Amino acid sequence: MSQDEELLKRIRDNFTRYQDAWREIRAEGKKDMKYISGDPWDEKERAEREDPAVNRPCLTMDELSQYINQLNNSVRQNPRAIKVLPLGEGANDKTAQFRQDMIRGIEYKSNAQSAYTCAFENAAQRSYGFFRISKVYVQGKSFNQELKVTRIPNPDVVYFDPDCKEIDGSDAQGCFVVDNILKEKYLQDWPHAEVKDFTAEAKAQAPEWSTDTHVQVAEYWEVKTEKRTLLEINGPAGKTNYYLDEIEGGKIEKGAKGEPSYLLIPPTGRFEITNQRDADKKTVVQYFTNGLEILDTVEWEGQWIPIIPVLGKEMYLDSGGGSKRVLMSLIRLGRDPYMLYCYYRTCQAELVSMTPKTPYIGYAGQFDIDKENWKHVNKLPTAYLQVNPILDVTGQNVLPLPQRQSYEPQIQTLEIGAEAAKRAIQSAIGMFNTSVGRADTKATSGVAVKALDQQSDQGTFHFIDNYDMALKHGGRIINEMIDFVYDTARQVGMVGEDGKYFVGQTTIDHETGAVVEHNGDHDVTISTGPSYQSQRDEVNEFLQSLANTPQGALVMDLLVKSRNLGPFGDKIAERLTPPQFASQNGQDIPPAIAQKLQQANQQIQDAHQLIQIGQKHIEQLQQEKANRVLENQTTLAKAKMDNETKITIAEITTKAQIEQVRAKLENDMWNQLHGDAHDAATQAVDQTHEANLQASDQAHEVGMQGADQEHEAEQNAQAQSATAEQAASQPQAGA
Fold it and tell me: What separation in angstroms does the CA of 57 have from each of 350, 353, 354, 407, 444?
């Protein structure tokens, strides 16, 4: 088997394997697109409903595209920018800025944002999308090439390596991009092809590559990996790194006794090897094939396949035959609720269409009177209607009047079900009414609305994150290919950070052969933010606020430029440019105007100084006022405390005085009562003594009237005396 035959067999086998791996993913993506396009109905049920003999409604209401559009437009409104970072080997901020301007120029000329958003939209709709980096010749009589970012609107033409693990596809080892073209066009595009007639034998060998009318021509990208030996050599210029295969005639030998362990032996001498390791050398090759022959072979200078996938949510599911990779679109889990929603709406329409058209029912002959009024009763208001009285079969009773047949379809119940299905769609997608421009009746506060918006952002951010990683990988490919494509001294279209297009010049270092302006190692990252127009609006607003300050004269020219007023605006800005900045920009200013501008600037500075002095004086007065207020507050607080203290002391003093007066009154009363008791006791004793004397005198006078009477008189006298003494020794009650 020849080398091409081995390659062709590998290509056909890989294509079959890639097809099998992507078959289920593509089938689900096809179903997603069917739902998004407004066809959630099962084909069999749709055919039964649309049968002319049945003619039942089969409605589709768009409830999915608004979420897709919301997610896509959020990316369009916030375009990503590739930012270049210097890593070394001669790279610096200047070379990084030059590369970044070049990349913006490539994106501008390629309309790269269209390619990026197309891939992202496909990822949101069907879970996978792609864009690519290509090399094309510069228009005109030139052999120079340039890079171009190209969109792939139909992602089903790409079969990407199913074994890659990185979400950005940076570890892919192969990729197919197929194109089914008419045989006539195939012969025009590939006139030197050996296979022109696809015989039955050829079709049997590659059955999936040709039909009676079309031929499949595929780009097959393959990454070849070779092992290399990286050496760190201690040479005359110090330690430097080389690959062994880069040194002509170089070989590694073990050192002799007293020499280093390993030596590099090139034809020019012997050098110490201080370190070594195995490294991979990647080579990317692009083959064009019809499955039976290699039509063309192109080597790609970079190390990555320049086709970048943008994927949806990635999952690995095991359904019994081992884990399989599953890619989820934005609306994947919302398909069933959407089908239910359309079914509810269809039932509503069907029930409304089944509402009776004749609202009155009566017996034959009742409508013979007022036929015209009865004919238009459903369209025109009528003051009265007449009917013929009809008797029943007995001929004795009049039949009832015609009656309106009321029928109320269950619209409200179906509406509740439809709203529930709509809520299920939103929950499955992770986006809610406020995030797609409609008010949520249950979110009555700004906090609730903001919470729903944040929840919607979080529910779809994994798509944004995968998109950013894909753009970063695409920027890394462009950055790598700049060294190979823009490797000559020439003019290059570039775009600055302000969005303005300009032409840059590259030059060659004759000693190294490298481009001076973008030489060195660089890496890329992705910056996300508002568009340039939004940034310019913010700058306009900020400059407008500065224009009303003392520094307004220094930025007036920038304010005019930011308004984008065209050539007249540029002249106005030139006249308003301050002299110190005009001289830096190389503008020639007449001496008289420069002197006036200088005087005006001096006056502005003097006025600014006066304003500063006035502000300081105002601040001093405000400080003094604050100190006085604080002092008055302190005085008032102290006076208040003194008053409260005096009141407390007065209350305490008053209470003490009251207690003293009360004690004095009680003491005086006790003394008075005690004196009164003493006087009473003394008087009683005197009275007793007098009574005793009188009794003695009487006894003496009567001559001792008897012993018994005398003894009784003495006892009475003693009892009275004891009573008087007891009264004298105790205060009276109430003392």
Answer: 6, 9, 11, 20, 37
Contact 91, 521 (CB under 8 A): yes
Is 506 within 8 Å of 518 (Cβ atoms)?
A: yes
CB 172 within 8 A of CB 335: no
Short-list 525, 532, 489, CA closest to 507: 489
The Cα 492–Cα 144 span in angstroms is 11
Q: Which residue, among 289, 259, 263, has the nearest Cα to 276 in the 3D structure?
A: 263
Which structure tokens are listed for 660? Answer: 């003293």
Residue type for 315, please? M
- DSSP class of residue 366 equals T
Map residue 520 onto helix, strand or coil: coil
Distance CA 255, CA 263 (A): 6
Spatial distance between the Cα atoms of 722 and 725, rounded to a whole number of angstroms: 5
Q: What is the pLDDT of residues 594-628, one digit of tens each?
A: 666 667 667 767 776 777 787 788 888 888 887 88
Instruction: Say how far apart CA 160 and CA 177 lie, in whole Å.
Output: 8
Torsion angle, alpha carbons of 254, 255, 256, 259, to 10: -170
Q: Work out the number of other CB atoms within 10 angstroms of the CB of residue 349.
A: 14
Quick: pLDDT tens for 414-429: 889 888 988 888 888 8
The beta-strand segments (E) located in 31-111 are 80-88
pLDDT at position 578 is: 73
What's the CA dihedral at 27, 33, 34, 37 to 10 degrees?
Answer: -170
Cβ neighbours of residue 272 closer than 8 Å, sequence gap 6 or more: 233, 234, 255, 260, 262, 263, 264
Query: Number of helices (H) and strands (E), helices first, in the chain?
Result: 17, 19
On whether the CB atoms of residues 410 and 344 are closer than 8 A, the answer is no
Q: Report the run of H or E that residue 626 belongs to, with start and end.
A: helix 591-702
* Helical residues (DSSP H) of 193-251, grouped into ranges: 200-205
Question: Is the pTM above the cut of 0.70?
Answer: no
Confidence of residue 298 (pLDDT cuts 50, 70, 90): very high
pLDDT at 434: 45
CA proximity to 272, closest of 252, 247, 257? 252
What SS3 string covers 204-219? Answer: HHCCCCECCCEEEEEE
Tokens standing for residue 162 = 């199913």
**Number of Cβ within a 10 Å radius of residue 494:** 21
Taking Cα atoms as reference points, which of 157, 175, 215, 209 lies closest to residue 29? 157
- Each residue's pLDDT tens digit, 251-281: 777 777 767 777 777 767 777 788 888 888 8
Radius of gyration of the chain (CA): 55
Which residue intervals of 510-565 are DSSP H helices? 532-547, 552-562
Residues 42 and 31 sit within 8 Å (Cβ to Cβ): no
Q: What is the mean pLDDT of residues 202-226?
A: 88
**How many CB atoms sit inside 10 A of residue 283's CB?**
14
The DSSP secondary-structure symbol of 346 reads H
User: Directed axis angle between helix 3-36 and helix 335-353, to 10°?
Assistant: 40
CA 543 to chain centre: 29
Residue type, 567: P
